[in-house]
Amino acid sequence: MVLLKIEGIHHTYFTKSSATTALSDISLTVEEGEFVSFLGPSGCGKTTLLSIIAGLIKPTEGSITLEDQPIEKLKSQIGYMLQQDYLFPWKTIEENILLGLKLNNLLTSKKKQDTLRLLDQMGLSGFEKQYPSQLSGGMRQRVALVRTLATEPKLLMLDEPFSALDYQTKLRLEDLVSDTLKTFHKTAILVTHDIGEAIAMSDRIFLFSPRPGKILKSFSIPEELRTISPFQARNHELYPEIFQTIWKELEQIETNQ
Fold it and tell me: Which residues does the UniProt record annotate as the domain ABC transporter (predicted)?
């Protein structure tokens, strides 16, 4: 079933002296439970498109629907996880993960217990009363994921959530996030510059051109990779071939700039 439908999105940023087109004629659909990645060079409008999908920016042209409803009506159904965790340093881990529920007037005893259980599943039991400064970067990102999932969003937006982490932590978090989203049957969109990350985590990859951003190609990841963990996918015999194919496409983009 189609969860997200993007039709004819065009976006231009205007200033007093200039107009810069960030996106041109973006149309795609995302199925319920699907994990898709937006991949492309810096400045190709990937994050702009995420902001439009989240209802933070109104596009110059085009429309976006979630479950056939205008996205503006369903902003609360979208979760956002960023490169920075944006945890409040003066609040405990427990207070941070319950914040979204509290702000949306959804905090009940059951929701609180469910959220604390999820924190435990992330390997963070016993850290409820600690503060963000007492946690490592990887642990903070796990807390941010719990906070994002606590409100039970229908769609998750992941804007380079692992890029600030060391490589080993990044690989572990890829597996953890992928497994968690599959367990909860969540639909997700990942923005990344990392070809390997996109291949290892995604069902489909959309490759963007430089500004103005357009979808040049889409790649469907083989079933053999989609049914295993991201770490296992990186070691699968099909992985190098897919990596080289996408790498060559990106090289071609750079050459034509």
Answer: 4-235
